[in-house]
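Sample entry was shown:

___
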Amino acid sequence: MNNIKKKAYRNTPAFVMMAWGAFLFFCILILIGLYTLKEPLMVKGYYLMGSVGLISSSFTLSKVIRDNQEDEERYNQMFRAQDIDNKE
């Protein structure tokens, strides 16, 4: 008997590629915009720091939101199982 379970992903490979492609595309646009900006290097650095901070904090925020949602689902499943056991 073959009891090996296939790993299931939530997103299709095409969607993952589109998400990473859009991320890279807009990062490149930001860098091109900073390169062509007619301001002193100090101003460009400020905008670059803001962009990098925004990008990294959006990754962190999306991970925290996803983790909280998964924890809530796991918590609800645990108490649903206890409720079923208590009714029997």
Remarks:
- Residues 13-87 form one domain.
